[in-house]
C-alpha cells in the first residue's frame, strides 16, 4: 500500500513533490494564498486542496476523516518569534501561533510520522527554549523527535540553503535524518542549457534552444518538451549600465562610487559564480540589488525558471500566476531533492517496520 501524506502550509508544493518522488501519495494539502494554491493544483492534480486560512478552518471536520488513513503530515508553519533580542519569546508568542495549528492537525490525525521544516534558528532560539517547548508539545501527544539542520547543497541541490528539519514518530524512535550525498552541483551545472536572454527577453512558454549539458540538466528536463517561466526582468537603463560594469565573478567592488547603492543585502550587485552553489534563493531574485542573483554572464537577474532549477524543481513543474507570486512560490519552497531525501528515510523506516 502506498503511504499517504497531508501537506500543510503547502506553497507550490516542493515538499510534496519530494515525497511523491520517494513513493508517497499526497492526499490533501492546505494553502492560504489562492494564486499559489492554483500552482499547486496544476502540478498536483490528484491532490485535494483546501484553499484557505488554517486558523479559520474547522480543523476537526476537515482533518478527522484522515485519521488512520494518513501516514505522514508535512509542512513548514511560519514561525517568526526567534529573536535573541528584547522580550523573551516562546511557543506561545503570537507570531508563532500558526505552529499550534500544525500540532493540532497532528494530534487529530495521529499519523505515524510528521516532518516540519523551518529556519535553523528554531533549534537555537532562546538558548534552546523553543525546541524544548516543541519537544514537550509533541511528547504529550505521543511523538518522539529527531531534528537537525540540513543544507540542500549536500543533497545535490546547487544552492546553499540551510533548513531545520524536525522529524517526529508516534510511539517509536524516529529514523535519523539523511546525511547527504557526494554529488555536488554548481550554478552553471544547473542553468547553462537555458536559453540565453537579455533584459526583457523571453516568454512564459518557449522552445529550448540548447541541448542539456550535464547530468543535472538531463534529470530536470526529463519529459519536458517546452521551456516555461523563462522570462527575463526588464531592467532600467541605469541598472543595465551598472550591470555592464560587473565582470564574471565580480561584484559591487567593480562599481564606481557614484553607482553604489545603500542596499542592506549581502551579495548586492554581485554576479553568481559559475563553479559554486547559489546563495539561498529568496522571493526577490529578480532584483540585482536584493542579493547575489545576477546572471553569471548576462546583464540581468535570473529568471523564474533559472531560480526553479537552482531549487531543484523539474522543468515539467509549471509556475502560474503573477511574476511576484511565481517568485514567492519558488523562493519559499523546500527544494524537492532535499525533501525526497528526507522522505526516503521515512520510507526505509516503514519498510523495516513491516519486516519486524
UniProtKB/TrEMBL annotation:
State the organism of origin.
Answer: Anaerococcus faecalis
The UniProt entry, under InterPro entries, shows: C5-Methyltransferase (IPR050390), C5_DNA_meth_AS (IPR018117), C5_MeTfrase (IPR001525), C5_meth_CS (IPR031303), SAM-dependent_MTases_sf (IPR029063)
Coiled-coil ranges per the record? none
The keyword Translocase belongs to this UniProt entry's keyword annotation: no
Q: Name one GO biological process term.
A: methylation
- Which keywords does UniProt give here? Methyltransferase, Restriction system, S-adenosyl-L-methionine, Transferase
- State if Glycosyltransferase is listed as a keyword: no
Q: Which family does it belong to?
A: Belongs to the class I-like SAM-binding methyltransferase superfamily. C5-methyltransferase family.
Q: What is its EC number?
A: 2.1.1.37
Enzyme class label: transferase
Can you name this protein?
Cytosine-specific methyltransferase
Write down the Gene3D superfamilies for this protein, in alphabetical order. DNA Methylase, subunit A, domain 2, Vaccinia Virus protein VP39
Which molecular-function annotations from GO does this UniProt entry contain?
methyltransferase activity
| Active site (record annotation) | 79
- Reaction catalyzed: a 2'-deoxycytidine in DNA + S-adenosyl-L-methionine = a 5-methyl-2'-deoxycytidine in DNA + S-adenosyl-L-homocysteine + H(+)
Q: Domain of life, per the record?
A: Bacteria
